[in-house]
Amino acid sequence: MTKLTKSMHRVWKSAQLYIGFHRDPEGKRRDAPKVWPPKNARATIHNDPAEQEVFVMLKSVNGDDAQDVQIKLRPDMIVLRRDCCDAWDGIIADQYSVKVKVGGVSIRVNYDGSIAREDEASTTWVEADGGVLKKTEFVEAAMSPDGSELTRRTPDNLTAITQSGLVSKDR
Fold first, then answer.
1. Does residue 1 surpass a pLDDT of 90?
2. Structure confidence at residue 30 (pLDDT)
3. Tell me, what's the pLDDT at 83?
4. Is the Cα dihedral 6, 71, 32, 101 positive or negative?
5. How large is the greatest C-alpha to C-alpha distance in the chain, in angstroms?
6. First and final C-alpha spacing in the chain
7. Is 5's pLDDT higher than 70?
């Protein structure tokens, strides 16, 4: 028995592929999509998800609907969503980034390794080279990739710590 099988525990009990049709055969928009599981477990991803969407429903092993995950397959992205309130509730993976929504916080990992964290009050970036930037309503702060320089800007002051020393200037 490997380490993985010793530590692994079951989270999902089933997966089902579905196609959701948003229009009836005459082309009239439906109030709710008609959901149909394809017989051969294959589905073409439509260009317009508002017309037809393809998704997989993962059912949790504990039977809690809030733990179930819906995986939407779109032509430009993959979207995972669930109604769970104590963990992630959305993930979007596209060609350039992966975004995770946890409560009121959004975290994006870009193709180059840079990371952005956003909430209602602030945004923090970790650049691909290791530099850090933070912006709030009241202050902007930055640290160089090697940690040797720091800057802090407020509406009325600019302060910097550089290799040459400390600089602070009223604006």
1. no
2. 93
3. 85
4. positive
5. 74
6. 65
7. no
Among 66-70, 85-89, 93-97, the range of highest mean pLDDT: 93-97
**Tokens read off for 56:** 């997989």
Between 39 and 116, the more confident residue is 116
> What is the chain written as a DSSP string?
--HHHHH----EEEEEEEEEEEE-TTSPEEEEEEEE--TTS-----S-TTTEEEEEEEEETT--GGG-EEEEE-SSEEEEE---SSSEEEEEEESSEEEEEETTEEEEEETTS-EEEE-SSEEEEE-TTS-EEEEESS-EEEE-TTS--EEEEETTEEEEEETTEEEEEE-
Classify residue 62 as left (phi > 0), alpha (psi -120 to 50) or beta. Answer: alpha
